[in-house]
Amino acid sequence: MNPLYRSTRRLNNNDTPLVIAFIAIFLVAAFVFGIDRISGGAVRGYARQGGGAVWSAASAAVSTVSGSGLLNSKQSLIAENAELREAIVILDEQAMRFEALQEENAALRALLGLADEEGVTVPVLSSFSSSPYGTFRIGGGAAAGLEEGSIVLTPGGFVLGSVTFVSARTATVEAFFAADKEIEMLVNGIPFVSQGRGGGNARGEIPRDAIVEVNDVVSVPAFGGRPAGIIGRFESASSSAYTTLYIRTPANLDSLRYVHVLPLQ
Amino acid sequence: MKNEFSYRSPRGVHKLRLFLGVAMFVSVIFAPWWVPAIFALALCLRFRAWEVILAGMFMDLYWMPAYIGLHSLPVATIVAILLVFGLEPLRRQLLIGPDIL
User: Fold this and answer.
1) A65 Cβ neighbours under 8 A, 6+ residues apart
2) For chain B, which terminus, N or C, has the lower number of CB atoms within 10 Å?
């Protein structure tokens, strides 16, 4: 007999009844998530604290190995190359941001008193692609003055998302461009609703007769007209009354090491 | 006594389960979401892997932006439960061994 095939009858005598196991697991899951909700996120806090510690340990180990000279020469060139690429991306992003601010937002920001606001710069603790929910972790928490709802920006000033959970030293940020997340935006004075596609990309539709160009800045009215992305490309079929915009965050999310967090207004 | 229905775990099967389990938990933190999904699928095809449900709960607790509720379901936990129980009949009938994996 094929050893990969085994008798169902024999297994049924020994295995735990599945219905009982299913009910038990459902109850355990409901208990854990219920305790988390009742306690104000205590269980999540422990899980994220543990995960953050693992991430920090791994990051420190990688830094130690990289800095020890074991992988030098080629490694140092790769690091320098990455830093220069990051600098170019930041400069491009800042140029776009300043242009947008000069043309559209300077007066409004001054009126709203946003020009003098302060914030904190914190490290990014996780990859932007790890979460199935479009979230990422940052290395600042309640101790650094962060609160739920605080706005998170790239170093160039583009809005990335908002803080949704805060523990003592870390926080969770939900990206505005998380998959299926909808948010009201503005491009060249035209309001529209964007739908997140994940990975720093979003899509939206505006009337076909509206004039837009590639690299036009898209802003979020709910956050003082801050820029959130640029138009990567747009399409308009002759049979459609709308133009579809493909929006992206100009920063390279995979190379972002630090973000800027603004306190609640 | 060994008959034709008896099945002994080949050497290394428990190590395989340990490796897949550790890799699954580590990838929840470090890798894109589909990497732990692949490990979970491999585990569920070979074992009745309760740890897959734990990993799903951990993923939800670690990454979810808001509290669990009707509008924010713990998708990873639900998928993990579906994997463990949904693949049970297939796993019972056709045991996929490490030589195939």
Assistant:
1) A71
2) N
For A57-168, list the strands marked E by DSSP: 120-123, 135-138, 151-153, 159-166
Please give the tally of structural domains in chain A: 1
Closest CA to A165 of A189, A149, A179: A149
Q: A13, A22, A25: which to substitute to probe chain B, counting the most B Cβ within 10 Å?
A: A25
**A93-145: pLDDT as tens digits:** 777 766 766 666 655 555 555 555 578 888 888 888 888 888 988 988 888 88
- Structural domain that includes position A95: 72-265
Asked if A4's CB is within 8 angstroms of B64's CB, the reply is: no
- How far does A139 lie from chain B, in Å, by closest CA? 14
Evaluate whether A86 touches A258 at the Cβ level (below 8 Å): no
pLDDT recorded at residue B100: 45
Per DSSP, what are the bridge partners of residue A261?
A: A120, A152
Domain assignment present for A199: yes
